[in-house]
S1-like domain-containing protein (Dichanthelium oligosanthes), 105 residues
Amino acid sequence: MKAGRKNLRRACDEGAAVTLGESIMQVLTLRGSNVIEVMDGEGVKSLALFPAKFQKSFWIKSGSFVVVDAGGRDQALESGSKIACVVSQVLFHEQVGALQKSGNW
């Protein structure tokens, strides 16, 4: 691991817990301009906003897992907004494995 990335990984390891109102979703496609298409565990697809603060520090691709804040999902869809949730964290491969073993998946 490079010296510049160790602090980023350490910060991600500290905040690996998923709280109420957040859910783990898989990235399907990158739509451009900070918008990604994600799918939850039930197979429901929606659009999520990838905040600009993550752009330079995280790189995601199809198949990656992210934690999204889907608290206002139903309300956003009722109002006619296409973007239903916001990415709050990108999960690394080690974090995905740890969550699957712990039963929080």
